[in-house]
Amino acid sequence: MKVLLRNPRRELDVAGPITVTALLQRLELSPEAVLVIAGDELVARDARLDDAATVEIRPVTSGGAPTR
Amino acid sequence: MKCTVCRGPAVIDVRRHNAAFCPDHFIVHCRDQVRRAITEHDMLSPDDRVLVAVSGGKDSLALWDLLAALDVPADGLHLRLGIGDYSTESTRAARAYASARGWTLHEVDLDADWGFTIPDAAAATHRVPCSACGLSKRHLCNQYAVEHGYDVVATGHNLDDEAAVLLGNVLRWETGYLGRQQPVLPAAPGFARKVKPLVRLGERELAAYCVIRRIDYQVEECPLASGNRHLAYKEVLNGLEHRSPGTKAAFVHGFFARGQTRFTGEDTATPLQPCATCGAPTPGEVCAFCRLRARVAERQ
């Protein structure tokens, strides 16, 4: 499957099927810091992603100016 | 994974609540959390004129959307910061969201209106860009609200932001800042009330909210924020949260409930007076924003 990563933006090929949790573990990404979107739908951690899926792993952490 | 409410297929889990939600019930969850934050902290009154600080990112657009869903009418204020393509895309997202709904989005252009950009300010001060950015946002949002008759400025600071700031303030025992870290900063002469209605929602929930609601937001990270201390604190907190769900909420909401008042008064500094340049309240002769402008002008 095609996996889009951001910051920096890049694309990987990952063999499926694979669960969201396993995919994040393989890519060493914290599940607290990303969402996984298949097509344009959000998918849960136990969802199984097919080999034909197009997947975006979207970071959710904003790091701009903190408040005091 | 099944929705805790309806047992339908879940699309997101919220481990600190030991819950998972389908799209519809996740939206209900987000609205409930914002309603609860507004009520618990007495953030808004029915007649308030509310100004939402809209960056074009997930938090501010979700906030505007959630306030509207809770029947809190609000106008938006977008600051154009001059951070290259990042700012261009942020402005596009903010305008597109407002225009699709026919809502009012005011804009302030830092370069055109004030003569500098955030990269200019960072270069002039030799400090991290986030410092000048935060200072400019606080000053200009408040100034716009006061000058245009808004009672309240609502910002998209979320649970993760508050946890990271709190950790930073505790690690350095910044007692003055701890005394001011609250979900509501009351109005004062020259200052609109500041409220943070998203303090009960994490940034993963807010990104998920935007995806489910099909809100097109600026997804890319600010290129100037990369590697800053605030991001490092978030990474540490995410590690703790992963091992022990609920840690961030206990840290932040425990502080608001039992810790913050212990630091009240730590920031009682010099009485405020009008800035000699712009008239904004300041403890010195000239406010920090005008001093920043002067430093940039000297360098230019």
Q: What would you say this structure looks like, in words?
A:
The complex is a heterodimer of chains A (68) and B (300). With 68 residues, chain A is mainly β. Chain A has one helix and seven strands. In chain A, strand 4 and strand 5 (41-42) form a beta hairpin. Chain A is globular and about 35 Å long. Chain B is α/β, with parallel strands linked by helices and 300 residues long. Helix content of chain B is 50%, strand content 11%. Chain B contains twelve helices and ten strands. The A-B interface holds A 6-7, 9, 30-35, 37, 40-47, 58-68 and B 1, 9-13, 20, 23, 55, 57-59, 130-131, 133-134, 137-138, 155, 157, 160-162, 164-165, 168-169, 174, 177, 180-181, 203-204, 206-208, 211-212, 219-222, 225-226, 228, 230-231, 234-235, 238-239, 241-242.
* Biggest sheet, spatial arrangement of strands of chain A: 2-1-7-4-5
Helix count of chain B, per DSSP? 12
Question: End-to-end span of chain B in angstroms?
Answer: 58 Å
Number-wise, the strands of chain B total 10
Strand order of the largest sheet of chain B: 5-4-3-6-8-7
Helix content of chain A: 10-25%
Residue runs with pLDDT of under 50 for 5 or more positions of chain A:
none
**Largest beta sheet of chain A, briefly?**
5 strands, mixed
> What structural class results from the helix and strand content of chain B?
alpha/beta
Assembly of the depicted chains: heterodimer
Quick one: overall form of chain B? Answer: globular
The topology string of helices and strands of chain A comes to: EEEHEEEE
> From the helix content, strand content and strand pairing of chain A, which structural class follows?
mainly beta
Strand content bin of chain A? 35-45%
Tell me the span between the first and last alpha carbons of chain A: 43 Å
- Model regions low in confidence, pLDDT < 50 over at least 5 residues of chain B: none
- Work out the radius of gyration of chain A: 13 Å
- The number of strands of chain A is 7
Mean pLDDT across the residues of chain B is 95
